[in-house]
Design goal:
Elements lengths: L1 H13 L10 H24 L12 H4 L2 H12 L2 H5 L3 H15 L8 E3 L6 E3 L6 E2 L4 E2 H10 L9 H5 L2 H22 L4 H4 L5 H13 L2 H9 L12 H14 L10
Helix pairs in contact: 2-4, 2-6, 2-9, 4-13, 7-9, 9-11, 9-12, 11-12, 11-13
Length: about 260
């Protein structure tokens, strides 16, 4: 009896512990699918309104829109830079996808707070100028409303910033607008330098998205300067594009050892 107890104790100590994954793969997959569906739903609405691209003549805006970039922007905007730039990128991606999967349409929405004794609620605006899952700004949003009237973006900025499909539409339009700047700057060569739906094109768009300065990048790209990212004036912008590269080339979750 005593020897049996000792044997069981030794066996328990020597047996390998069950390794639990760092995330729930079901929730991660659900979050990824949610973002993929956002792009699809946004493009269905834009196509229904026949919204044309300003970058390429006779093309619908969604014919040029890269669904992969639409899905990565929320990770860029909501992710922890130190995790994505470091060795915790998988956990950070899983954290964001899990939050989106569990909160759905409420993910990254502003919280409502009571304003008086009758318990009415209003949105509490966060500090800073950016709002929502896609971190939209008022100035850029209204520029997209004016530049793409067929898209019928709502008049109220806060309403769109708190709606995921509307925010995805904004991101698609903003990326098309920045592509149009590029097309005007180097009309004969931009297709060769940055083909649509490639990393080179996505990097240009991400740089313009985070900085709001597309002209700066057009000059660098038109000169075919491979070091243009390192010459960006702000470390925050340089880190943003390194985050994009890390996310762009990150392995799929079913390829990651957990």
């Amino acid at each position: 009896m005593f020897l049996g107890i000792i044997f069981c104790a030794v066996f328990a100590l020597s047996s390998p512990k069950e390794v639990r994954p760092a995330y729930d793969p079901v929730l991660v997959a659900r979050g990824q699918q949610y973002l993929a569906d956002l792009h699809t739903r946004a493009c269905l609405e834009l196509d229904r309104e026949n919204v044309m691209s300003r970058a390429v003549q006779d093309k619908l805006v969604c014919e040029l829109a890269d669904p992969r970039l639409t899905q990565i922007i929320p990770l860029l905007e909501q992710g922890d830079p130190s995790a994505i730039l470091g060795d915790k990128i998988t956990r950070e991606r899983a954290r964001i996808y899990t939050l989106i999967a569990t909160q759905g349409a409420d993910a990254y929405k502003l919280k409502k707070q009571p304003t008086n004794s009758h318990k009415k609620h209003k949105l509490k605006k966060p500090r800073g100028n950016s709002h929502g899952m896609y971190q939209m700004t008022v100035k850029t949003y209204h520029a997209m409303r004016k530049g793409y009237p067929a898209a019928n973006l709502p008049k109220k900025f806060m309403g769109c910033s708190q709606d995921h499909v509307c925010s995805a539409k904004f991101a698609i339009l903003y990326n098309d607008a920045n592509t149009s700047f590029l097309a005007r700057r180097i009309p004969a060569r931009w297709h060769e330098k940055m083909p649509i739906k490639t990393f080179a094109h996505a990097r240009y768009l991400a740089g313009a998205y985070t900085s709001g300065m597309p002209a700066y990048y057009m000059v660098r790209q038109s000169r075919a300067d491979p070091s243009w990212v390192k010459k960006m004036p702000k470390a925050q912008w340089r880190n943003y594009l390194q985050m994009l590269e890390n996310l762009w080339y990150a392995p799929q979750f079913n390829e990651v050892n957990t």
